[in-house]
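Let's practice the habit of predicting before peeking. Look at the sequence and jot down your guess about where helices and strands might fall. Then scroll down.
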Amino acid sequence: MSDEQAAGEGTRKHASLRPPANTSGERPLSIAITYCVPCQFTARATWVAQELLLTCADYISGLTLVPGSGGVFEVTVNGEQVFSRKEAGRYPELRELKEEINKLLE
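Done guessing? Here is the structure:
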């Protein structure tokens, strides 16, 4: 197994929630991740984006990383906030983001 395959396999193990197969071809989800640049949240934001794309790519019409400041780390789906670090006092768990996305797809 190549290093790239091994890296991909390790990442996919974390993608425990997977929406049902998208047979309609629709891509109804527009996701934005707003993150604090001065706080060095860039790596976390790109990691969350990668994991969501690996899990839900068939449903995502676009995923935008939005640089911000003031300690912000927010995830919005179709303009609706599904997670705020300031409100929760912590970073999002991938599982909870995927659960929120699954709810929107039902």
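How did you do? Helices lie at 3-12, 42-56, 85-88, 94-105.
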